[in-house]
Design brief:
Elements (H helix, E strand, L loop, with lengths): L13 E5 L2 H9 L8 E6 L2 E6 L5 H22 L3 E3 L5 E3 L3 E3 L3 E5 L13 E2 L8 E6 L3 H5 L1 H8 L4 E6 L4 E7 L5 E4 L10 H29 L3 H7 L1
Parallel strand pairs: 5-8, 9-10
Antiparallel strand pairs: 1-3, 2-3, 2-6, 4-7, 5-6, 7-9, 10-11, 11-12
Length: 232
Amino acid sequence: MTTNYQSFYHSTLTYQKPATWQDYLKYRDDSEPKETHYQLFFYLDQLIVNDVGREGINHAMVCNSMTVILALWCMQSSRQEFTSFGHCLIEKPEVAATAPDMVAYIGVEIPVSSEEEKYINLNRWRVPDLVVEVSDITLMIDLGDKKQLYAALKIPEYWVINVQTKQVLMFILHEDGNYLESDISQALIGLQADLLNQTLEQLSQRGTGQASRWFYQQIQKNIPQNTSEEIS
């Protein structure tokens, strides 16, 4: 069937409708000016359009700050190569598509853009090590349909950051194909949800710079002296 994707432009917060992959591509590639910024989500022959233009100050601050915070962790503690692709479309052609708030790859094998392909095509590139959704007004879909989608795509780790409660929910993919909640990250070795929760509290009170500095100080306390000197 063919969906009239133009009708989505006048949707409310979230609009869901049966659709084909071709419908999704038409909406994705449409060049007409849009009234606000939309986030696309295609799975199980359903096209979901989120009006992320409704996301506010807190959502934006957490999204931007989290990239800095996770980069600090990888640089100073776990010493892993870390690359973040914020809001980049992930596509499994004919199957699924979504644009998480953060797409994180650990290691040097990362997607690169080309003239033919500017999105992350999972038929060409490996799945991300971690995807993150920052939930202000999208908590139900992030813990529901999107969680199911990321599990189906076999993404090893998924976080939902609840902006209102200042809480990071970490989910690790298990052999049975389901996510189970965890208190510690496997993708970012050793990073605990509790430390991130405390950092979110700092962020709400002091802003990105001060919260990042506080986070840095906490992880420095747990680095052996000789390792800290080697890194610096």
